[in-house]
TrEMBL record:
Methanolan biosynthesis EpsI domain ranges (all copies): 324-507
Gene Ontology MF term list: peptidase activity
Name of the protein: Exosortase A
Any one cellular-component term (Gene Ontology): plasma membrane
Source organism: Novosphingobium colocasiae
Keyword Protease recorded: yes
Alphabetical list of InterPro entries matching this protein: EpsH-like, Exo/Archaeosortase_dom, Exosortase, Exosortase-1, Methanolan_biosynth_EpsI
Length: 519
């Protein structure tokens, strides 16, 4: 058996065998990537920490190597395509830099990180040309999976898993009652916690499915079927796993079943599920192992690509354009990051007709998180018929890194506390309602609003868009987060107490502005 000398020498590519135009173009691309990674190093380090520290994103550590492998698969065909500096790629780079800028201005890490990744991808059409980009289209699209996204799906997946679990529990003959993400059985109370939502396996399966569909299939129908399987199977499998834990607990106890579940969940169950999906898909693979991933001749003779390729510029102009875009984006971000609206010396909880201020004495301590806020208020009102409502207000001079009213981990649900998310609650005056569970017997409803300028909303997305607009216009305006909350009490349900308090406190925008001394 003979081994390739390049493998014996530890090299996958003979650099001297690379055509001279490609060597020069790849050196320019490498230099541009290095500069971008250094200049936006904070975003890349933040992503790296998420890949390494958060189990949901551990699989992303493999994706850079996968992208490199996908590019190497195309190297022989790409060598037949002449690289060029293509000025329309500058539009893509400008769009990516603008996306990063919007994230930097609003404090939205996802947009910053997506922009940082997109800037690397946009350098490829700019510095290698439209034909080379077409040949590298899939690896470039696969770069999107470098962005750590998916944690936002946790509440939805918790709810879906709980519904699958309760259905299987009833089907297996076990009496059970569901309340949001809590399932009460004869063996004890079970919670479909964030870690049990199945989000990490779902995201990893999607990454696997997209790769396998591209590499192993040619048929679009077969690709779509595999992607659908990779989306549905992990959700169903996670529900079955949660049911298995409840079923086992009826016979061996909650602690033993929970310990077994952690071992199986981490090392066995989903490895078996993945193996089953691969085995089921294997007979339907329709791409020959020796088939080329791209057709260089078809790319070179494509009439549309030929017309587009006419928009070339000198390589030096392309590098200068990258520098101009990057300097503009970072300069704008620096000018906006120090914006701060004037703040009052203090803020107060105002009087509400029919209600009086009382000592704040919750059965389980509850205090929303509002990192970076310039003022915070937390107080309690007692009203008619034994109703009690807690009021939390946070006032920010501006929005940005470390001071995001709608940021991850901010708001009514305190991370690493006695409180757990149970389900969505009925909206009040357009607010975002959440039902929280404290311990095993304290239930609380919390309704959240944000206000900036003339906008009052419960939508984190709308708040982010308003913050982006303010920063783009270099306009400083205060931002508020208001949370009304109440514990369920006998004869005074939380939802009814909040509804009554809102009616008695008057127009929401005026009441918030009065608390923050903006009126």
């Amino acid at each position: 058996m003979q081994l390739d000398a390049r493998i014996l020498s530890g090299r996958l590519i003979d650099w001297q065998a690379v055509p001279a135009p490609w060597r020069a173009a790849l050196l320019r691309l490498g230099a541009a990537w290095l500069v971008l990674i250094v200049l936006f190093g904070g975003d890349w380090l933040a992503m790296l920490r998420q890949w390494w520290d958060i189990s949901t994103y551990n699989h992303i550590l493999l994706i850079p190597a996968i992208i490199g492998w996908l590019a190497l698969q195309r190297r022989r065909e790409l060598a037949q395509i002449a690289p060029q500096t293509w000025w329309p790629g500058l539009l893509l780079l400008g769009g990516a830099a603008f996306l990063w800028l919007l994230g930097a201005l609003s404090g939205l890490d996802l947009a910053r990180q997506a922009g940082a990744v997109a800037m690397l991808g946009a350098c490829v059409p700019l510095l290698l040309g439209v034909r080379a980009t077409w040949g590298l289209l899939f690896p470039l699209c696969y770069m999107a999976l470098l962005i750590p996204v998916g944690e936002e799906l946790v509440p939805l997946l918790q709810t879906v898993t709980a519904k699958i679990t309760i259905a299987l529990t009833h089907f297996s003959g076990i009496p059970a009652r569901i309340d949001g993400v809590f399932i009460d059985t004869p063996a004890g109370l079970f919670q479909v916690a964030e870690a049990c939502s199945g989000v990490k396996f779902l995201i990893a399966m999607i990454a696997f499915g997209v790769l396998t569909a591209h590499v192993c299939f040619v048929s679009a129908v077969r690709r779509a079927v595999l992607l659908a399987v990779c989306l549905v199977v992990p959700i169903l499998a996670n529900g079955a796993r949660a049911w298995g834990t409840i079923f086992a607990a009826q016979y061996v106890g909650v602690e033993v079943a929970g310990g077994i579940d952690h071992i199986i969940y981490g090392w066995v169950f989903f490895a078996v599920v993945l193996a089953i999906v691969i085995a089921a898909a294997w007979p339907f693979f329709d791409r020959r192992p020796d088939a080329a991933m791209i057709d260089a001749e078809a790319i070179n003779t494509n009439p549309l690509l030929t017309r587009l390729a006419a928009a070339s510029i000198p390589p030096v102009a392309g590098l200068c354009a990258i520098a101009l875009v990057v300097v503009t984006a970072r300069g704008w971000a620096m000018a906006a990051q120090d914006l701060a609206a004037p703040m009052p010396d203090r803020i107060d909880l105002p009087a509400v007709a029919g209600w009086q201020r009382v000592d704040y004495t919750p059965r389980i301590w509850w205090e929303p998180r509002a990192e970076g806020a310039d003022h915070r208020l937390l107080g309690r009102y007692a009203g008619p018929d034994g109703m009690v409502v807690d009021v939390f207000l946070a006032l920010y001079a501006g929005q940005g890194e470390g001071r995001e009213a709608g940021g991850f981990g901010q708001g009514a649900l305190m991370p690493n506390s006695a409180w757990a998310w149970q389900s969505a609650a009925t909206s009040v005056d357009g607010g975002r309602g959440e039902r929280l569970m404290g311990g095993t017997d304290v239930e609380r409803v919390a309704v959240t609003w944000y206000r900036t300028g003339d906008l009052t909303t419960a939508s984190n997305a709308r708040l982010k868009l308003a913050a982006m607009a303010d920063h783009l216009l270099l306009r400083a305006r205060p931002t508020m987060m208001l949370i009304l909350s109440a514990e369920d009490r006998r004869g005074a349900p939380a939802q009814r107490a909040i509804d009554r308090f809102r009616k008695d406190s008057g127009p929401l925008d005026m009441w918030m502005d009065r608390m923050a001394r903006l009126r």
